[in-house]
Amino acid sequence: GDPQDPVPLDLNTRKVTHHSIQLSWDLENTAQRKGPQEQWLKISIEEEDPKLHTYGTIYTGYARQHVIEGLQPRTTYRFRLKVTGSTGECSYSPAVSISTTREPMSGEQLHRAVSMNDVEAVLNILQGGHVKVDVPDKLGFTALMVASQKGYDRLVKILVQNGTDVNQKNGSGKDSLMLACFAGHLDIIKYLREQGASWEVRDLGGCTALHWAVDGGHCEVIEWMINDGCQVDAKDTCLEWTPLMRVSAVTGNKDVASLLIEAGADVNVKDKDGKTPLMVAVLNNHEELIQLLLDKGADATVKNEYGKGLLEMARGFHRHSVVILLEENKRKLSGNTNCPPPVLGSQAREVTK
Length: 353
Fold this sequence. Notes:
Blueprint: E1 11-16, E2 21-25, E3 42-48, E4 55-61, E5 65-68, E6 76-84, E7 90-92, E8 96-99, H1 107-115, H2 119-128, H3 143-150, H4 153-161, H5 176-183, H6 186-194, H7 209-216, H8 219-227, H9 243-251, H10 254-262, H11 277-283, H12 287-295, H13 310-316, H14 320-334, H15 345-352
Antiparallel strand pairs: 1-2, 2-5, 3-4, 3-6, 6-7, 6-8
């Protein structure tokens, strides 16, 4: 056929997304793109204005396909093809109606559903297949990290069953196991361990899950971790603190310290600056912990890097009740029982105000 002849027109939909439609057309004559271009058939795509029912041109050229971008999701559009011959005669294809798809679920929606513990929504989003289960939120947390931290047992299992990586770390190097240990969710901890989470993992500061569990102060969790074989005296990289040292520095929790010591934590371990747990407990005024450490054989004769002993430190910080504790301990060790016993505990505070 001659290019000037009107042609049978067919507008095909190639690919539809939530924001684009790809149209193609196969005109028998466009195959014969011979001769000068002005003799070729010129193609226009026209889009109908739904209110006015008039058509406006959105593409003109010689291609065999075109992608229309920037469309709204779940919306119906009407298009037709206009073909102009070299002498100006036009023919139109029948109009076609095409609807864009629904917008795929986003990582943001997954995280919103997880933080609200909305199991049904999480399942829907994951079944949609558009959202990667490990997509991080703005803080670098995966859905599993959030669910582990918040104690959402059922979601944790769903996420793992949907292929989430239990060993994924956030920006500071923490994994889901550390977050669950800090928050004290024992069932989740047990499940993550079954799924291959490791006690050996370190965050960027060199802390292990036990360091974090100690900060969280959940004795039941710590006891289970120790029985499960986590290392009791791992040192972080920053200050070379063991979990026991962290108790002295952070919480002063006597029960946690007691568990660690029973499990073999070294009461006389030294950090990067040569400080021991007892020294740090004195500096932080953790009286019950000081007593426990002394009872468990902590060396009370240690000196800091400036040659100061514990008593000198306690006096320097006006820690009167700590001074009394240390003096009493000294007396016990020297076997000198002639002196009057010091006033201990709450009365000591009254006396030394």
